[in-house]
From TrEMBL:
<dbReference type="GO" id="GO:0005634">
    <property type="term" value="C:nucleus"/>
</dbReference>
<dbReference type="GO" id="GO:0006281">
    <property type="term" value="P:DNA repair"/>
</dbReference>
<dbReference type="GO" id="GO:0008237">
    <property type="term" value="F:metallopeptidase activity"/>
</dbReference>
<dbReference type="InterPro" id="IPR013536">
    <property type="entry name" value="WLM_dom"/>
</dbReference>
<dbReference type="InterPro" id="IPR053000">
    <property type="entry name" value="WSS1-like_metalloprotease"/>
</dbReference>
<feature type="domain" description="WLM">
    <location>
        <begin position="1"/>
        <end position="197"/>
    </location>
</feature>
<dbReference type="Pfam" id="PF08325">
    <property type="entry name" value="WLM"/>
</dbReference>
<protein>
    <submittedName>
        <fullName>WLM-domain-containing protein</fullName>
    </submittedName>
</protein>
Length: 272
């Protein structure tokens, strides 16, 4: 059954390379992780494709905003090994940001940061892709219009506002709790390093874009994006969570305990 209001019309993977079925699965998985953010903004992309350019530093490419997005899935030195899903998803979020902004300027970075924060928030809530949340239970129900979802999120946030006490002067980043045993300084450093490599590895708006697309089209195997109704419900649930987070932040209330906090006096700090 075709997915309701699909956000990607098709996927293209490099069928001649090893583990091609895993590559297609990885494309679908990355797509499923970003669809809640796409639905929130009304974004649709015709084709999400795997590419493996000769230049080892290249990671992603956006063609004509919504026509085609190419992302690297494999290591340059060994096409049998795949990059981490975290790396691939972050690259995809970067290329999606080019739907709105072309150059890598402050506006672009602000949008990319926003998408990254929303993605991390969903991960902490247990969103793992289409059709499954937390314990992997499929969701049911009917499609709720975006305006109604926003209204419900605002009501829920207002109710919670009356039952919690905000930290004095503090604003929590991302609304996510810290996983026990994780070195947050290392997390921040890794995220900064990944951000730099993705930006440097973006070929969007470059002189090489046409050649890279032609090369990918010669080798890509096209698969129509066929999904089932459970996927649509999972995306809707994730989107509702994002809207709730947004409303809580608008009210100046934290949405979770632990993690990072920020205030005008001390700046970024780690919660004890």
């Amino acid at each position: 059954m075709r997915e309701i209001d699909a956000h990607f019309d098709a996927y293209e993977h490099l069928k001649h390379l090893p583990n091609d079925a895993e590559a297609l699965h990885m494309l679908r998985k990355a797509a499923s992780m970003v669809k809640p953010m796409m639905r929130k903004r009304g974004w649709k992309v015709q084709t999400l494709a795997e590419f493996l350019p000769d230049e080892p530093q290249l990671l992603g490419l956006n063609i004509n905003r919504t026509e085609r997005i190419l992302i690297r899935l494999r290591y340059h030195h060994d096409s049998r090994q795949f990059l981490s899903m975290e790396q691939v998803t972050d690259t995809l979020l970067h290329e999606l940001s080019h739907i709105i902004f072309g150059p890598h300027n402050a506006d672009f970075n602000n949008l990319w940061n926003e998408l990254r924060d929303e993605h991390q928030s969903l991960l902490m809530k247990g969103y793992s892709g289409e059709g499954f949340l937390s314990q992997g239970k499929k969701l049911g129900g009917k499609r709720v219009p975006l305006d109604e979802m926003r209204r419900q999120a605002r009501i829920a946030a207002e109710k919670r506002k009356s039952t919690i006490n905000a930290n004095a002067g503090g604003h929590r980043l991302g609304g996510s709790s810290t996983v026990r045993g994780v070195d947050m300084r290392r997390v921040i450093a890794d995220a900064a390093s990944r951000r730099s490599s993705i930006t440097e590895g973006c070929a969007s708006n470059s002189a090489e874009a046409g050649r890279l697309v032609h090369q990918q089209e010669q080798d890509g195997f096209r698969t129509r994006a066929e999904q089932d109704d459970a996927n649509d419900q999972a995306i809707a649930r994730a989107l509702q969570d994002l809207m709730y987070e947004e409303e809580m932040q608008r009210l100046g209330k934290p949405t979770a305990l632990g993690g990072l906090s920020w205030d005008p006096t001390n700046g970024l700090s780690f919660d004890s």
